[in-house]
Specification:
With 390 residues, this protein is an alpha+beta fold. The chain is built from eleven helices and 15 strands. It is flat, with a radius of gyration of 37 Å. About 14% of the residues have low confidence.
């Protein structure tokens, strides 16, 4: 029986018995199902024939004390009901590769690679060991940085200079971990595989070699710079392009700009958290820019053509109709932030009717005349009626 079957198939469910079932209960359940699905009783029925094989397979394992114990231990290790978790990727036999299950492949540091580092060739039949992870191509680490942009840079995009610090091969020992002039030697315990096998009955559990800690190599005279780890800090300056239209707090991914890979693996990614400085005039509403423009009472009441500022150049002329109320918003097309498709949003102009703090005699007389002309018009009468009716 393959490891794949042990992890994938629930033999207790096949026989319809609990995991605590006794040997007699298992035998009784098997006999009942065997009579039901026996080929002689269902001639020509391929479905019942397959079911009979499945029942027989389950009984072969659970009726044998030793095999049942191995089966229970294997499933308990990762929990019952594994489903696809217990399948060898692609239906392959032999070694159980957690990297394939969890998205970790050569050159990528996924959860599977980290689990493989811990368990190596777990569930390899016959004690065969998985090749050392030390020599595999590995994707570089992802790095996170921050940058502060002006409001205009965030709207139009900008190229920024970033100083990045990441883990890299020690420059003093070229990543070997050995002092200059010396070289590491192959670990005699694991013979360079980085893994040691521990037999448990019918299975071989592979774990990192305790002597070399999974590297496959031993360093007798460690590098004084990295203390034999083979890793060090690398600092570099890069030019990174932040796309147009980013907003404050947005996390931008720059593919391949992270830490260099190991053993020929690809570089990681760089994640840049963008901080945007506020603008004294303009604001943002998604892909649109916003601006509040003051107008006088006569302009709002009689209508006017007014100048409106834009972020990228000369002001534009906006015509407001007579009777424009305070707070009304007008849209100026194509004067906003950049969209992903290359087009631009709009500029949203909010009208603010201003009241002068001081009036000369002529202006005061004109307003008093206007007040007298509108006397008797109570703008709040309807509002008061509605309030009383509630």
């Amino acid at each position: 029986m393959s490891t794949k079957d042990y992890l994938e198939k629930d033999y207790y469910a096949v026989l319809g018995v609990p995991k605590t079932a006794s040997a007699d209960e298992i035998k009784k359940a098997y006999r009942k199902l065997a009579r039901k699905y026996h080929p002689d009783a269902n001639k020509g029925n391929t479905e019942t024939e397959e079911k009979f094989k499945e029942v027989s397979e389950a009984y072969d394992v659970l009726s044998d004390t030793k095999r049942r114990k191995e089966y229970d231990e294997a499933r308990t290790l990762f929990g019952s009901g594994l489903g696809n978790f217990g399948r060898a990727p692609g239906g392959s036999r032999g070694g159980f590769d957690f990297g394939d299950l969890f998205g970790g492949t050569a050159g990528h540091t996924g959860a599977g690679d980290r689990i493989n580092d811990l368990f190596g060739g777990l569930f390899n039949r016959g004690g065969s060991q998985r090749p050392s992870s030390a020599g595999r191509a590995r994707r570089g680490q992802d790095i996170e940085s921050e940058v502060t942009l002006s409001f205009a840079e965030a709207v139009d995009g900008a190229t920024v200079s970033l100083r990045l610090t990441s883990s890299a091969a020690c420059a003093a020992c070229a990543g070997t971990g050995a002092k200059a002039g010396t070289t590491p030697r192959v670990c005699p315990t694991c013979e360079g595989t980085g893994a040691a096998s521990r037999n448990l009955g019918n299975f071989a559990f592979s774990e990192p070699c305790r002597d070399c800690r999974g590297r496959g190599l031993l360093v007798d005279d460690p590098c004084p710079v990295c203390d034999g780890s083979g890793r060090g800090k690398s600092t570099r300056n890069i030019q990174a392009r932040v796309p147009a239209g980013v907003s404050d707090g947005q996390r931008v991914k720059l593919k391949g700009k992270g830490a260099p890979g190991e053993n020929g693996g690809p570089a990681g990614d760089l994640y840049v958290v963008v901080h945007v400085q506020p603008h004294p005039v303009f604001g943002r509403s998604g892909e649109n820019l916003t601006v509040a423009v003051p107008v006088t009472f006569p302009e709002a009441a009689l209508g006017a053509e007014i100048k409106v500022p834009t972020l990228r150049g000369m002001p534009v002329t906006l015509r407001i109709p007579e009777g424009t109320p305070n707070g009304r918003t007008f849209r100026v097309r194509g004067r906003g932030a950049a969209r992903k498709d290359g087009t631009k949003g709009d500029l949203l102009v909010s009208i603010q009717v201003t009241v002068p703090e001081r009036l000369d005699d002529k202006a005061r007389a004109a307003l008093e005349q206007f007040r007298d002309a509108t006397e008797g018009v109570d703008l709040r009468e309807e509002l008061i009626k509605q309030a009383r009716s509630e």
